[in-house]
Amino acid sequence: MLSLVLSSTLRGTGRFCRLQGVLSPCQPVPPSAAVSCSFRFLKTGQYSVTGDHDPELLDKVKSGTFKSVLSVAAPEEDLRVPVPQLEEETKKALGGSESPSSTFRNVPVTPSTLYYGVAHDVAAALGELPKPVLVHCRGGVRAAAAAAIGLLTEGDEETASAELSRIPGRSDLIGWVDRFRRSREVADALEVQTESTGLVFRQLFDRESCTYTYLLACAETREGVLIDPVLEQIGRDLQEADDLGIKILYALNTHVHADHITSSGCLKEAVPGLKSVLGSRYAEKGVDAKADVLVGHGEKIHFGNKFLEVRHTPGHTAGCVTYVTDDLSMAFTGDALLIRGSGRTDFQGGDSKELFRSIWKEILSLPDGTAIFPGHDYSGRLRSSVKEEKMFNQRVNAGGEEAFAEVLSALAARLPKPKHIEVAVPANLRCGLEELPGGDLRCSGCQGA
Length: 449
Known about the structure:
Elements: E1 17-19, E2 22-24, E3 40-41, E4 47-51, H1 57-62, E5 68-71, H2 83-94, E6 104-106, H3 116-128, E7 133-137, H4 141-153, H5 157-164, H6 171-193, E8 199-206, E9 211-218, E10 223-227, H7 234-244, E11 247-252, H8 264-270, E12 275-279, H9 281-284, E13 293-295, E14 300-303, E15 306-312, E16 321-325, E17 330-334, E18 337-338, E19 341-342, H10 352-363, E20 371-374, E21 384-385, H11 386-392, H12 401-414, H13 421-428, E22 433-435, E23 441-443
Parallel strand pairs: 4-7, 5-6, 5-7, 10-11, 11-12, 12-13, 17-20
Antiparallel strand pairs: 1-2, 3-4, 8-9, 9-10, 14-15, 15-16, 16-17, 18-19, 20-21, 22-23
Helix pairs in contact: 3-4, 4-5, 4-6, 10-12
């Protein structure tokens, strides 16, 4: 067992500041100490670590002692030998011009990215690169932490622990490596729980907006998605993924929300490579909604060996979608279909008759046993099923489109508009980011930052 003493207050540290009660990535946390590590071979002979300060860095690369190089410095860092130059020199010395990733990889490790996803990428790179590998960063400290991750992956906890002992004062990096180790132990336990479904699943709740967020991941590859993440809960969601050893590939929104701000944009800062997803029908209806991926009806979102099918279910808003698991066992309906109810239709291009058709054609046409996971519930209920909603949902069984529309019209007359609609909708049209003069975007939770 890797012996590390880690204060609980350090778990999940990274590029976060708290503004007006909102945890959001905006300003980097500086390293706690300026520590550097000299060049050295590790006991296993598989990895060596070095820093940009090493005057013989390029000579070592050209010597043929190493078969590959992993740099965990960011390409934009001001280094004596910048990452792009190091990559070029590595390919010249070791080959790999036709397949650059065969001899050189760059996985930036920064204070804002100390989460499982980056640790996973480091482990994957070290697993694929030919040995021995020279691991590089500015001062050698992040390289030592990266090498420790490679050693843990190979089961050499003794050498990994020795590496971490060389970087005192960097509790952020030590904690990052320790969380990676613990997540691997959790993954072993989860294999038993997920054997029948192949899916890791967590239902999470935001008390303020009564919003459900869903974390799903392929049990085998640990690649996953977050559905309808809430800005105020970004720290919780990242910690949950970190604890379970899940690399989040996509932040999926079922629609442009009016009652809370999505954390999709801020998640992109914390998780390199993460993409935001929204239904394509907003654009088709002339709504200027932005996301990395605009998904059409019937498209599939893959994560590991699993996927979610996209079903357009407009009516609550013009661009709502429902996400359905590949085995049709689960449907994430957002605000289209709620437990014993449905979303309202009196703003954002809502259309009661269209919603009625969406619910019956795209959701209640699923197998009776399909579990329904809504975007909200205000009575503490967690889930329903297609069969239950067909039997007990009085709103969708009101007697057809006209009767359904009358029910929703009466509902709109007595309900106030969502209290955050004026702030939430503009932000969510930009994945939870605020557009500044000049076109730049910033996290909507970081006013004044």
